[in-house]
Design a protein that fits this description.
122 residues, alpha/beta
Length: 122
Amino acid sequence: MADEQDYETRITEEGGILRFVPRGKLEFGRSERFLTLVRNTARARGCRRVLIDARAFSDPMPNNDRFAIGERVAEEWRGLRVAVVSPVEARDGFIETVAVNRGATARGFESVERAMDWLSLE
């Protein structure tokens, strides 16, 4: 059972790809713990490819939080290939840019299908 301060997250695995579907109020501390959950679960299951379906989040974080999350993505997800699907109106690529500039292999997408295609390229 997840801590009430964490996102409610459904985790499934198919074809070597871990899929996370988080829900809850978007918040910096929760997001930091979610990054660690993704890393720890991927390591425990021996998966390097991850799909995060974040379409339940429609409001973006403030820019200073998004910058810090981008830095944490680069730290926490080193060695993983992560595709994040988010609503068009909430996705401007800022977190992705920060993370990729610091060595992460992560990319944002508007559809699960395009994300899965990118994950399958590896």
